[in-house]
UniProtKB/TrEMBL annotation, chains A, B, C, D:
PROSITE patterns: PABS_2
Top EC group: transferase
EC number: 2.5.1.79
PABS domain mapped to chain residues: 18-255
Protein name (record): thermospermine synthase
Length: 328, 328, 328, 328
């Protein structure tokens, strides 16, 4: 034991900054958190799973080397994913989640008193078991009697099912070509599989990938454009999520118009929901759904649609800056 | 020359990912860009300066190991800093910049046709010379006859000066205790030095540090609160800046009300400004000035004021997550 | 759970390379191991302790952010520290270890059948407890009846003790100025405290810090020179330790001559020791004690002696490259 | 320019530690140098080239993301590669270098007064031009009239040539399967191409990859074993090279015995060579050619031979720790 840190590190500082979690946000861009510990690791048929204890963001769920959500800011992602759609619906009772095995999406849905049934359909049983065991904040949700857990591919399940839902929520990985979820973002999937499973006035909402000034061209603009070909009313919105080191996007779609104003949204939050939101209220959503000029222009010009047969070209992960013509 | 990279790196890939710029955004959180090159380095009496060629963000100006602005997204910061204040003013003719030696703030101001005089007051002549030499996008601004460059401490210059300005812009480093700019953010400075140098209906705007869901407690909320003690109308707003890995904040203040609506802002942009904005228009500003519920609540509760004598306690850089009681 | 690693990482690859242990070997030089896990962490009155599971080196003991030893190559350090001195002694029966709380030094000593008493004197009880609990390879050593554990400062213990030993072994942190162990490397300590506790023909050996072509000027040459002022016969030797990213040094000293040849060393290994060495035999030691021309010349010119009062100047950790005059 | 480094970084410190060169020594193990600058970059038909200015090791030549040699310690590699073979030869006049485009190997050869012709045969003209332009220490060598530069594949050149040489030196990348140099390490190449180009009593020496306690199983042991099938006398030796973070190996081979002793080597250095060696002398070589017990045993057991047709299995880069049976 011959070695001593003479670099003046105070007690308690040394160990802490020695261990790091590192992620390539995109090629050429890294994001690193100091670690307190590696709490649990596991492996499923499909993926590697880890629960880390990070210094800047608390506990962090990592799947296949990609951060999924962190203790201190997952509320932003999940409040934005769930509440705008449920609040815009007159009386959401039955909800279907594509993916969502982490449990946080179900937890937020179950705060809505109108809801009496939530189907969470995730393909990866080990991930669900891992999250149920280790994510304390979602414990109650996993044991809520209104939650029905299905282990299946979401497409297969929706094809098989004869139920119809008030709200369907896409909590899936991005539509990367050759990725596991591409088939769940195509025009034909939305038209022939998903839409028939929505009740009248039903609403579909999906996470829609990075939505930053540059990164929105990766998948956000294309998900938005694809949904415009399928639904009459489509609302894209976004919020900055610190642990993702980016602004994130969601798209909400329906054949009924969205005309909830700020005050009415605040009122429904008060009347229908248990607990208090940390991030979202009427004003927050109003701002989130006004995109910046740069993103707005870009979305308006988007022509790409996700289709099954062709899949001609999908903006590749990390390539978006090549498409920034006009920005330099 | 015995060593060969057998890891399957394609040609052109190897070199590129070998060199990295790394910054500790805060303690325990690192942000790293792959480098193409280190273009220029220099040293002033006060600071180290470098112009890097980064892969993800193009050319990047770094001062004392802290990224200042990058080629591909500096427009977000500078459009947000300059245009809301100038557009809200009826007819801005004379502008004073505290700091701004990079030249980008002057460049944006000079796009306003009403402006006939811009005083840029930066303490660091070498930084100004470095930027004038190397930042191609700001070349024209540095040679514009309306620009008057003063090398001085901004406080000393404002104390000495007898001129009054339509708009004063703070483009300074954050008010870190013992940092070089703390004195330019205090209540007494605003009251006794800055405000007397504003013309009637004059507007002050300052960059105000990180404004993310957590990071706004570092300095943003306190700058906002300090200005509320000095001006009758105060507008905080924010935008996500990819290269900063955070949402950034600005605060605009005046004794005259801000009542420009979205359409009128768009009209003034068209009438008064040369060239086209990339980021900012009426809608973008409307959204930028609606803070999220989390930040809004926190700003409303802020009691700290930057004062000269006391400087009791300033939320330290990197400590903000300790103040997140209630969020866990 | 929206994010997917589209970078083509195969299963099992993603997670593994996300977590890293990082150490600044010296200022400007970093050494990073991929991690499988953080097995145990602890804190003592003096130090932070961690047992990591690293991919390249197996389990690794880290104290105050400085790697101490790793499962797969600690045998190099410990065989080199212990066996040359014990084998050079005619019949080593009693051994005193200054430091050594990890237990590996004791483990190697206890392989010598001549030994009937080992005193391990470490100041940090928590480190000893931590290692006894978690370092499986040293379990037997900690429970060997010949081992006597003393929790005390080694200097105080040697001053207090009236015993004399055949071999004294220094398994301490480097003599960094203001570091915890500086007092255990000075000329006066060696003369008045340590030497009186050696029996006739007794041998002292100490770890002596980095001994690379450049790094030997940090402490190795000075420890060597200090011992030359105290003992008649002094033998410096070195070996490359992969996990340290450097060649390491030891110095053996006595007032009796060292005249064991290669064959005799091999014979004594066979006769006196249980188990088989992995790294050290007669030839290995012969090569280890022939320093390269660069290091030999530098040691011959060394004039610095560690003294208590003066401690004028000690080559600072990480500064050694400044002393490389003549090498450029 | 809003951002200030409040982390207490002293002047001159900030910039310096922001930019890093990073290399994966092997999978799961990284080695990082702080950078002062990126001096030159280039691209050849085959490879990317860069000359970096590193803080810990001075100027560093990097090819395809792999460090080749650094200003402050390249002398170790090149003295070890060149001098033992030339000194063991009775009167070396003509030398052939396979590879060596960097120029340092030629530089060391040209220090031998007996030498009247050096053929440097490198396949990559741009690398040679790059090094000739930028590596100041090798300027004289490149302009020495005894140097003959050939741009060709070394195998093709040796097949084509009718000259015979006193010493042939392999300064090539490691024999990685599918790598560019594998064909220059096979038994049949040595037998049918290389050996016929050696004069009587001629000596062949080659760099032989990492030779650390674990890493020697990558290629060192197999190069050694292959040469044992081709030459009567084969001498493996090694030295720690700080900038490589490893011990490096070379193998020298001939059909005449090597029986130069320590004193005779020192004498020949004095008589035949211009300038003074920094690293190598008789004693240094004596130690370098005594491998540690661990490596010696492993080399003795090596059965793999590099062959052209079969190339069954080559210890993969980074996999060596899997072959460490018996070490755990």
């Amino acid at each position: 034991m011959p070695r001593f840190n003479g670099n003046g590190s105070a007690l308690g500082e040394g160990r802490m900054k020695s261990c790091w979690y590192e992620e390539e946000i995109e090629q050429n861009l890294r994001w690193c958190y100091a670690l307190n510990g590696i709490l649990h690791t596991g492996e499923s048929k499909y993926q590697d799973i880890a629960l880390l204890d990070t210094k800047p963001f608390g506990k962090a769920l990592v799947i296949d080397g990609k951060l999924q959500s962190t203790e201190i800011d997952e509320f932003i992602y999940h409040e934005c994913l769930v509440h705008p759609a449920l609040l815009n619906h007159m009386h959401p009772k039955t909800i279907f989640i594509m993916g969502g095995g982490e449990g946080s999406t179900a937890r937020e849905i179950l705060r809505h008193k109108t809801v009496n049934k939530v189907v969470m359909c995730d393909i990866d049983e080990e991930v669900v078991d891992f999250c149920r065991s280790y994510l304390v904040a979602n414990k109650d949700a996993f044991f809520d009697s209104r939650l029905e857990l299905v282990i299946n591919d979401a497409r297969a399940e929706l094809e098989r099912s004869e139920d119809r839902f008030d709200v369907i929520i896409g909590d899936l990985a991005d539509p990367i070509e050759d990725g596991p979820c591409y088939q769940l973002y195509t025009k034909s999937f939305y038209e022939s599989v998903l839409k028939p499973r929505l009740k009248e006035n039903g609403i579909f909402v999906t996470q829609a990938g990075p939505a930053g000034v540059f990164s929105h061209t990766e998948v956000f603009s294309c998900i938005y454009n694809t949904l415009r070909h399928v639904f009459r009313y489509v609302v894209p919105y976004s919020a900055h999520i610190p642990s993702y080191a980016d602004t994130w996007g969601w798209v909400m779609a329906s054949d009924s118009p969205f005309n909830l104003d700020t005050e009415e949204m605040d009122l429904r939050i008060k009347q229908r929901m248990a607990g208090e939101n940390r991030y979202l209220d009427g004003n927050t959503f109003a701002a989130a759904s006004i995109l910046s000029k740069a993103v707005r222009k870009s979305l308006a010009k988007e022509t790409q649609v996700y289709t099954e047969g062709s899949a001609k070209f999908i903006y590749g992960h990390g390539n978006f800056r090549k498409n920034r013509s006009g920005l330099e």
